[in-house]
Amino acid sequence: MIEPTTLILPLGIWATLRVASSLGGGADLDYRQYEQRAAYAQREARRDLIDVRA
Predict the structure, then answer these.
(1) Less Cβ crowding at N or C end of the chain, within 10 Å?
(2) pLDDT tens-place string over residues 29-50
(3) What number of H helices and E strands is found in the chain?
């Protein structure tokens, strides 16, 4: 059986993220994802450029 105390931390984390997201904290996460995608696209473009030169 799952002990109730093992559920406290995950539920607390989930609740904190929900509150932060509703207060606008999710915008930081969206921007971070945007930066990661841009960095990935830049790396892929460099690889393609290196492949063309070779």
Answers:
(1) N
(2) 677 888 899 999 999 988 888 7
(3) 2, 0
